[in-house]
Specification:
298 residues, alpha/beta, 11 helices, 8 strands, elongated, binds guanosine-5'-diphosphate, hydrolase, Signal recognition particle subunit SRP54, EC 3.6.5.4
Length: 298
């Protein structure tokens, strides 16, 4: 296991207790440790550089307080900066004022979209909503079936193309699902879309067409936290190709140390809104920037 940033800084500062102000050499030593810790957490290099610069700047200006030792003080600064980049407060879903709230999911195949759709539906149901799931991933052979099975598990209906009726046209399915939701008085529509194994133009166009057809209140980009550095280029490609309002990180139960969260939030400026952390349909919650900051630090 990696040494935690808190441990690293404690070592660096062993001899500094009681000093009035951090010297430039102390700050450089600190910056080095932060840099290593962030790189080990798989944070993208440009983000690391920017982050370390910001922390150095703040550390220079601050008196070392009596209450905290220098290591604790730096950890506090690092923690505050991490929380700020991760969005500060938890960003909540915005619901439509009139008619059903439409949430569209986009991301690569295997990111965990279909699983997430059911998790989100269950979570919304627990909040007193009456969601409906929409199967617009007509690319992956088993995706419709998988959504139906998961929908049944969480007790949420699934709108899917009848065999032979509109099969192959996800945009038509998406459009029709909104009418269906209105008719059946569902207040949230969750649209699952197709992913490819890698970013491609056709995938982007299809997602953009679905977006234009359903005019979602929230587009959520779903990304596997375990893909580390690749998360940044994928996040940027979806931002350019489809656009989104927030990010959902999946597979946070793996040993990813949160680098993807920090890199994506920093580079795209979009908040991480939800965290998916297991294969069970209840393994899902709002994303809490402060908890993720602790995970990166500790
Ligand atoms: P999609 O292609 O984006 O729709 O991805 P799926 O929902 O089919 O998920 C791909 C795989 O990841 C499946 O085996 C899921 O069980 C698994 N999966 C999804 N979310 C999580 C998660 O949060 N943690 C773990 N460990 N596995 C997950």
């Amino acid at each position: 296991m990696f040494a935690t940033l808190s441990d690293r800084l404690s070592d660096t500062f062993k001899n500094l207790r009681g000093k009035g102000r951090l010297s430039e050499a102390d700050i450089d030593a600190t910056a080095r440790e932060i840099r290593i810790a962030l790189l080990e957490a798989d944070v993208a290099l440009p983000v690391v550089k920017q982050f370390v610069g910001a922390v150095k700047e703040r550390a220079r200006g601050e008196e070392v307080s009596k209450a905290l030792n220098p290591a604790q003080q730096i950890v506090k600064i690092v923690n505050e900066e991490l929380v700020a980049i991760l969005g500060g407060e938890t960003r909540r879903l915005r619901y439509a004022k009139n008619g059903p709230t439409v949430i569209m999911l986009a991301g690569l195949q295997g990111a965990g979209k279909t699983t997430l759709a059911a998790k989100l539906a269950l979570w919304l149901k627990d909040q007193g909503k009456t969601p409906i799931l929409v199967a617009c991933d007509l690319q992956r052979p088993n995706a419709v079936n998988q959504l139906q099975v998961n929908g049944e598990r969480v007790g949420v209906p699934v709108y899917a193309p009848e065999p032979g009726n509109g099969v192959g046209d996800p945009v038509a399915v998406a459009r029709a699902s909104i009418e269906e939701a209105k008719r059946r008085l569902h207040d949230v529509v969750i649209v699952d879309t197709a992913g490819r194994l890698g970013v491609d133009a056709e995938l982007m166009q299809q997602a953009a067409d679905i977006r234009d057809a359903v005019r979602p209140d929230e587009v959520l980009f779903v990304v596997d936290a375990m893909i580390g550095q690749d998360a940044v280029s994928t996040a940027q490609a979806f931002l350019d190709g489809v656009g989104y309002d927030g990010v959902v990180l999946t597979k946070l139960d793996g040993d990813a140390r949160g680098g993807a969260a920090l890199s994506i939030a920093s580079i795209t400026g979009k908040p991480v809104m939800f965290a998916s952390n297991g294969e069970k349909l209840t393994d899902f919650d709002l994303f809490h920037p402060d908890r993720m900051a602790s995970r990166i630090l500790d």
